Amino acid sequence: MPKIMKTLTIAGSDSSGGAGIQADLKTFEEYGTYGFSALTTIVTMDPDNGWHHNVYPVDSALVAEQLKTVFAGGPVDAMKTGMLGSVDIVRVAEQAIKSNQQKNVVIDPVMVCKGEDEVLNPESAEAIRDLLLPLATVVTPNLFEAGVLSGLGKLTSVEDMKEAARKIHGLGAQNVVVKGGKALGGDRAIDVFFDGKDFTVLETDKIEPAYNHGAGCTFAAAITGGLANGLSVADAVAKAKDFVSAAIRSGYQFNEYVGPVFHGGYRLNR
């Protein structure tokens, strides 16, 4: 039997199933890896209030206990972070990465819930920037997050994305993917990958209707699965782009507010 590669997500729970820890574990399974999890937040969405998001952080000591359980078997082959919820939880994640000498670390710097437009916790965003980016093999901000991390504010072009990637790389991340997705103008879904030397622009046609809830979490989890399986960072990012595009194409309308990606789309449509 081939070796089973181990993956870890430190992230929040999305009861609708499209994003968060649910998306990560589904993606890990699609990549043939064994997924571990440490739950940091519970997010609920209120259908009686325009799908407003409520975020409930888990106590940081409980997050640390979960990670102690995970790392009882030693470092995993790759890991990612998602919504962390508080500065204390960011510090717990930092300590777990450092104390276990964890390699292949994907930082998805989640700052908002889909449909929301304010940073959930500005202090947590700063902690992610200062404590986790220097530990990141790859960091995967969307346009909003890249604007916050880089200090450039609103990004509206590929050149803006490249400049943000340069600045974020300067904060310590080894590789940066700035996700334009559907938020960038035009008919192409564009992401920019920067390895510290060269830029690669990844493009696909925009998919309509765009059932893309969970696309960002799924993308980071797919990179994590690729790294665990021995892909180079560039190849893991390129495959993740294909994986997420297939997941969006196979997504569906959950209710009047949201349509999630379908994580089995890449496998089922090959």
UniProtKB/TrEMBL annotation:
Q: Which domain of life is it from?
A: Bacteria
Per its record, what are the GO molecular function terms? kinase activity
Stored SUPFAM superfamilies:
Ribokinase-like (SSF53613)
Which CDD domains does its entry note?
HMPP_kinase
EC top class, as a word: transferase
Q: Please list the reactions this protein catalyses.
A: pyridoxal + ATP = pyridoxal 5'-phosphate + ADP + H(+)
The EC code for this enzyme is 2.7.1.35
* Keywords for the protein's UniProt record, in alphabetical order: ATP-binding, Kinase, Magnesium, Metal-binding, Nucleotide-binding, Transferase
**Which InterPro entries does the UniProt entry name for this protein?**
HMP/HMP-P_kinase_dom, PM/HMP-P_kinase-1, Ribokinase-like
What Gene3D superfamilies would the database entry show? Answer: 3.40.1190.20
- List residues of the Pyridoxamine kinase/Phosphomethylpyrimidine kinase domain: 14-261
The family line of this record is: Belongs to the ThiD family.
Q: What is this protein called?
A: pyridoxal kinase
What is the native source organism of this protein? Answer: Paenibacillus cineris
The taxonomic lineage of its organism, from the top, reads:
Bacteria, Bacillati, Bacillota, Bacilli, Bacillales
- Identify the coding gene: thiD_2
